[in-house]
Design brief:
alpha/beta; 13 strands; globular; four-stranded parallel β-sheet; 11 helices; single chain
Amino acid sequence: MSVKIVTDSTSYIPEKILKEYDISVISLSVAFGGNSYKETEIKNETFYGMIKDEIPTSSQPSVDDFFKIFEKIIKEGNDLVGVFISSEMSGTYSTANLVKNMIAENYPGSNIEIIDSRSNSMQLGLAAVSGARAAKENKSFDEVIRTINNSIKRTRYLFIPDTLKYLKKGGRIGTANALLGSLLQIKPILTVTDGKTDLIEKIRTRQKAVQKIIQIMLKDVSEFGMEEIIVHHINCYDDAVKLKNELEGILNKNIMIADIGPVIGAHVGPGAIGIVYCTERDIK
């Protein structure tokens, strides 16, 4: 028996890491008109071509999607720890708990824990990977859960949308802020606080905003140390490479780039860039 980790597609964990740590992924979906696509089944380049003409809606996985993966893991005699997108952003966490109860009825004695990451993207991904690493080291069910919860306390996500129209449409920030930003060409620096998108600061230009998130990160590093950092981007790979190179020069660390896919991309919009990092000590 071992502990298996399940997360959702908005973690955007690179495929190589998913395979290395045997992490299962349940996909959310996006819909254009009457056509729905699981985000794990549509290429980012295709999606960001489509989004130019229409902003899609997104939806959580079905009960059946969860049940198939949960049941397979439990039938094989494993424990299961699921860590999912913030419950403030999606019903995914709620559905996972519903299915946990269904599995418990069918398989008495099964061990399943569902964790709300209170975020998305690689802030969620780092929590899932930390648990999978612990599981691979043969840590106990309770130790894996504790590792994930500790990771959540030690991560921060900073990002800069290129435009505010996607966040405005999705209701992710106030309408007044979105309107003001679009009129003045302000580049907001956003984060995720208590499971919701939150504004840190408004900066006049993209270049200055990028430098500001580096400053914020370095302040955190000086106070809390640094374990790992990831550069995120939404369909602006060249900008991500530039930021990665700059950060590697500052931190003397190898830094991974992780693409953001359709579900979060639909809410934040193409051109967004950001960083997710995990510190050595609790940051919150």
